[in-house]
Specification:
By secondary structure, this protein is α+β, with helices and mostly antiparallel strands. 21% of the residues lie in helices and 33% in strands. α1 packs antiparallel against α3, α3 runs antiparallel to α11 and α4 runs antiparallel to α5.
């Protein structure tokens, strides 16, 4: 126990006058006598010969001394150092990073112990205490600000869960420093396993480090990468032992759901090993799994699995319908990322049915268009009228032939960048009527190149036959074809890095046909979003789970079209090193771990004042009890 105002103890000297008053005061018992004449001499003799009386035991004296003692101690402000807050403002930084998922805690995961430590602080709140709870995750957030409401604080604490990602401690420190502004004698409690980065700045006020976690045994897949090879793909997997003792583990490789290989790996303390495989062509999803084989625990399962996609979804498929076009076939043969399929007009439906999935781009070269909506994005050369018995509204109608094909107007469009149409020579072109399309290049009597979007499909139309022009011989041919092909088949519907970490944001790029985007998460749950009429990429941020995410798009008819897949892996060397820290380095200061947690001063003066008041009431009752018992009126 400590005293905040020890000088007040000097007031205890007031006990001396009280005692002296009791020694000087004559204590006589009231007695009814017939006359006081015989007592006068005796009284005068005692007053002259005995001014000081022997101090006798007296209950009133004891009570008055107790009252004085209670008042003096209250003024001295005694306080006890107890676990809890004990008055004031406290900022609690609760670590919610991936390492807090380690299962070496007292009750299971480390985060459960951290939550229990925060709950004890909440339970120690008094009337003057204020607690601010900050979750330190990938994006730190204030869950409760300067609150004394225990129920509200516990509700906020119950909503916190650790993330499969590293914590942003610099941002959390900045948030805590901002919360401290305007507070007197602030204190900060950091509840963590100590996996904080180096170079953190000091924090104002008193800082306490409440540690969680007891062991550092862990095995991890530190990195995994794949690259195309001549006959398939090369895969590299790096495994690491960040723990304090040598370990033995089994590394297994699964390709498209089938176990391909297993290897025993010996790892020294803090050591790593790189393993490589050559995978066959056509392999899709590759999963690596690491398991201990020495009987020792692996407290963090999160980093024991990793996934790779070998790029099967990156290649776009193109269907060329026509009698054969050497220029187009050679162009797509050298254009990276495209696979060309050929079909005669009468075979087109059968080839499309056998393919299973829709083609990314369909080219109609001098053949009639199908009746009804196009099956996908289309590139049309030398268009022909559809069959006369068609029921649907045709995309375009051929009304004649253009004999004068000299371009008189060229639109300022990115598709025509670095293309000089003045050097182009055409034998003839079709005169077409296509109200839904926009002419980019026009002759005097009609358009030569049109583009647009119809029924959610992108369409580009060259109104002439390539073989009836010198365009394939021009330098501009690969440029205009690459521009238009990229616009018609914009590539992957998923714009994301190959090395995605949990919590990352992925851009989804639906085409005009899609009305709804559907993402299947690794645990089988489904995320859906309406994308009808969307003009901007769709941002998907529900990537906390590790594993494979699969994207699909639904059209107006409810048909599903695959949009690709992406993998989310946990590769974080700092979070995988789960050995609990014994101290934190903040600026130039070293903050040692305190297993007792945050302690505060509990002042006792309110209780002393209350006790003094109770004793005062007892003393008053003892003094006047006889007077209270006397009747107000006497009768003779």
């Amino acid at each position: 126990m400590s005293l905040f105002a020890p000088a007040a103890l000097a007031l205890g000297l007031l006990a001396l006058p009280i005692v002296l008053l009791y020694m000087l005061r004559l204590r006589r018992r009231e007695q009814t006598v017939s006359s006081t004449y015989l007592w006068r001499t005796l009284v005068q003799d005692r007053a002259a010969n005995a001014p000081w009386q022997r101090l006798r035991r007296n209950l009133l004296l004891l009570l008055q001394l107790l009252i004085l003692a209670a008042l003096v101690l209250a003024l001295a402000r005694p306080a006890l150092r107890l676990p809890g807050l004990g008055g004031g403002s406290v900022i609690v930084l609760l670590d919610a990073s991936a390492s807090m998922l380690a299962t070496d805690g007292d009750g299971g995961a480390r985060f459960d112990d951290a939550r229990a430590a925060a709950d004890r602080l909440i339970g120690g709140l008094s009337g003057d205490d204020r607690l601010t709870l900050i979750r330190v995750g990938r994006t730190p957030a204030v869950l409760a600000a300067a609150s004394a409401d225990r129920a509200a604080l516990r509700r906020a604490l119950a909503t916190v869960a650790p993330e499969n990602a590293a914590a942003d401690w610099p941002a959390a420190f900045a948030l805590a420093a901002g919360s401290i502004q305007g507070l007197s004698d602030p204190r900060i409690a950091i509840i963590s396993d100590g996996g904080l980065p180096e170079g953190l700045p000091p924090l104002p006020g008193e800082v306490s480090f409440v540690p969680v976690g007891r062991a550092g045994d862990n095995l991890t897949i530190a990195a995994q990468a794949a690259r195309p090879a001549a006959n398939g793909a090369d895969l590299l997997v790096v495994v690491e032992n960040p723990g304090p003792a040598a370990r033995s583990a089994l590394l297994s490789l699964t390709v498209d759901g089938a176990l391909t290989d297993s290897r025993r790996v010996e790892l020294a303390a803090g050591g790593q090993s790189a393993q490589s495989w050559t995978l066959p062509a056509g392999a899709g999803v590759v999963e690596a799994r690491l398991e201990p084989r020495d009987g020792a625990p692996d407290y963090l399962p999160l980093d024991d699995r990793a996934w790779s996609l070998l790029g099967a979804d990156d290649e776009r498929r193109v269907l060329l319908i026509g009698e054969g076009n050497l220029f187009l076939e050679r162009f797509f043969a050298v254009l990276p990322g495209y696979e060309l399929f050929r079909a005669a007009p009468e075979e087109a439906e059968q080839v499309a049915a056998e393919a299973g999935e829709p083609f990314d781009l369909t080219i109609y070269d001098g053949v009639p268009l199908p009746d009804g909506p196009l099956p996908g994005n289309a590139l049309i050369f030398n268009p022909q009228n559809p069959p006369a018995d068609g029921d649907g509204e045709p995309l375009l109608t051929v009304t004649g032939v253009l004999s004068d094909t000299t371009a008189v107007r060229v639109a300022a469009d990115p598709l025509l960048e670095n293309v000089d149409w003045r050097a182009l020579s055409l034998a003839e072109a079709q005169r077409v009527d296509a109200p839904a399309l926009t002419p980019l290049v026009e002759a005097e009597a009609g358009p030569l190149l049109l583009t647009g979007e119809v029924d959610g499909r992108r369409v580009a139309v060259f109104t002439f036959d390539l073989r009836a022009s010198d365009l394939p011989l021009q330098i501009a041919f690969p440029v205009i074809m690459a521009n238009i092909t990229a616009w018609l088949s914009p590539g992957r519907a998923i714009a994301a890095d190959d090395n995605l970490q949990p919590g990352a944001t992925v851009s989804l790029l639906p085409d005009g046909r899609a009305t709804r985007a559907v993402v299947t998460l690794p645990d089988g749950s489904v995320w859906e979003q309406d994308v009808a009429g969307a003009t901007a990429p769709l941002l998907f941020d529900q990537t906390q789970q590790t594993g494979i995410y699969r994207l699909a798009f639904l059209d107006d008819a409810g048909q599903s079209r695959p949009g690709g897949a992406f993998a989310v892996n946990f590769f974080d060397a700092t979070e995988s090193r789960i050995q609990p820290a014994t101290s934190l380095r903040l600026g130039q200061a070293e903050v040692a771990a305190d297993d007792a947690g945050l302690a505060g001063w509990r002042e006792l003066w309110p209780w002393l004042l209350a006790g003094g008041l109770v004793v005062l009431l007892i003393e008053w009752w003892m003094t006047y009890r006889r007077a209270l018992r006397r009747p107000l009126f006497r009768t003779r």
